[in-house]
């Protein structure tokens, strides 16, 4: 394709964020073309645990996190690991992150995230219903559980922080946790139930988003690699790919963890680091949890669907290391065994890793660029891309259309980073 690749809105990135933006724009009557370098929804959208978690309003940056990460630096299986290496960009990111590890910024960012998360939870349920997205969506909440009594006692700030943001939470002792979720073993001493949370099968969700985009007349070009940009003054006149040149009246950059590398070609410096996560997908065990679980001390997420069962999570700052780290996969298995009666399914279906786009303030980057007039950014969602997909699609569509946004976008705008 050459100059025939003209569109109303051109979206770079066919993951959960790009596809959600495309669908909301199509619903609003705009024409859309999506360019994806691999398979639509095949990157970080594919292998996460699919939890929809307003309960995760708290930022990663909080007092004590940096000290813990430094203690874990030489542990290859640590839940949060910073791989020791010379990377100036990472260390500058960590310095900015460290400045936010205080209770004042923690409370400020939690309140900001909570508003966006509440909006997205409600918008997502409506989107799945209205578009008839078949993705095993359930609204039965999630549960965080502890096996260390001291760690559980030290987490007593959590229900207060969520209550301050209008998010419901129930505090449970060990017996109540096991009564609520019989798959838990006797090691569990307590936990928190989050009734406003939900879950879905993420690979099916993104496949359904792609189907809905195409059904509404949107075009999705897979296996299409960006090669450069045609910038004329303060506008993006074209995007050059191995399929030819594409243009759009508006262009949305939704490339997840790959955003910084591409944005630099437009002279945009975005503080995003790739945070590597892992998962193992199994066939369902006989005693699979009904409620999605976060096993807190080991930072392992457990989700079961009718179609399968997944252990996932962990966070590794190791750049764009493309190796499947066996040590970290084994840590998921060991962690699950500490909390669950039947921690693994009978057969492994897939072992996976993906890079999450992490901003140091743990807030996404949403809105128009201050440097490129017709460019919007929709990236930096960290560990909450699926959870925030609907709110992102809604807000980006409203900004493209010039409508009054459903939520004040000021805290998320690219201008906070000079973008």
Short description:
The chain is of the alpha/beta class and 419 residues long. It is 31% helix and 26% strand.
| Helix-strand category | alpha/beta
What radius of gyration results from the CA coordinates? Answer: 21 Å
Summarize model confidence as the mean pLDDT: 93
What fraction of the residues are assigned to beta strands by DSSP? 25-35%
Main sheet: strands, sense, barrel: 9 strands, mixed
Q: pLDDT below 50 for ≥5 consecutive residues: which ranges? A: none
Number of strands: 19
Helix content: 25-40%
- Total helix count? 12
Distance between the termini: 30 Å
Coarse morphology: globular
Q: Could you characterize the architecture of this molecule?
A:
The chain has 419 residues and is α/β, with parallel strands linked by helices. It is 31% helix and 26% strand. Strands 4, 5, 6, 7, 13, 14, 15, 16 and 17 form a nine-stranded mixed β-sheet that branches. Strands 1, 2, 9, 10, 11, 12, 18 and 19 form an eight-stranded mixed β-sheet that branches. It is built from twelve helices and 19 strands. The model has no long low-confidence stretch (mean pLDDT 93). The chain starts with a strand and ends in an 18-residue tail after the last helix. The longest helix has 29 residues, at 103-131. Helix 5 packs across helix 12.
């Amino acid at each position: 394709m050459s100059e025939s690749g003209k569109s109303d809105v051109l979206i770079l990135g066919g993951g959960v964020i790009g596809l959600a933006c495309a669908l909301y724009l199509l619903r609003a009557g705009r024409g859309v073309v999506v360019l994806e370098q691999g398979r639509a929804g095949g990157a970080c959208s594919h292998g996460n645990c699919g939890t929809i978690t307003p309960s995760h309003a708290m930022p990663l940056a909080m007092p004590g996190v940096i000290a813990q990460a430094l203690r874990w630096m030489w542990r290859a299986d640590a839940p949060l690991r910073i791989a020791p290496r010379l990377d100036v960009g990472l260390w500058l990111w960590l310095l900015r992150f460290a400045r936010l590890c205080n209770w004042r910024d923690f409370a400020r960012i939690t309140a900001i995230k909570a508003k966006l998360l509440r909006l997205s939870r409600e918008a997502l349920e409506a989107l799945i219903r209205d578009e008839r997205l078949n993705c095993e969506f359930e609204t039965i909440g999630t549960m965080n559980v502890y096996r260390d009594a001291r760690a559980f006692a030290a987490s007593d700030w959590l229900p207060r922080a969520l209550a301050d943001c209008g998010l419901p939470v129930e505090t449970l002792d060990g017996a109540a946790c096991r009564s609520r979720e019989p798959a838990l073993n006797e090691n569990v001493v307590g936990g928190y139930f989050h009734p406003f949370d939900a879950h879905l099968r993420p690979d099916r969700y993104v496949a359904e988003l792609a189907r809905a985009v195409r059904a509404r007349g949107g075009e999705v070009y897979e296996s299409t690699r960006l090669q450069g940009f045609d910038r004329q003054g303060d506008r993006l006149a074209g995007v050059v790919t191995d399929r030819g040149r594409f243009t759009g009246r508006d262009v949305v950059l939704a490339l997840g963890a790959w955003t910084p590398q591409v944005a630099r070609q437009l002279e945009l410096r975005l503080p995003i680091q790739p945070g590597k996560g892992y998962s193992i997908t199994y066939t369902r065990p006989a005693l699979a949890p009904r409620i999605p679980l976060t096993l807190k001390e080991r930072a392992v997420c457990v989700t079961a669907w009718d179609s399968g069962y997944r252990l996932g999570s962990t966070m590794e700052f190791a750049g764009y290391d493309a190796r499947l780290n066996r040590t970290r996969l084994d840590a998921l298995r060991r962690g699950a065994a500490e909390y669950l009666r039947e921690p693994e399914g009978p057969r492994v279906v897939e072992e996976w890793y993906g890079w999450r786009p992490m901003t140091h303030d743990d807030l996404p980057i949403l809105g128009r660029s201050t440097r490129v007039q017709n460019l919007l950014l929709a990236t930096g969602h960290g560990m909450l891309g699926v959870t925030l997909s609907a709110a992102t699609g809604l807000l980006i569509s409203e900004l493209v259309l010039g409508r009054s946004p459903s939520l004040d976008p000021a805290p998320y705008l690219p201008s906070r980073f000079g973008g």
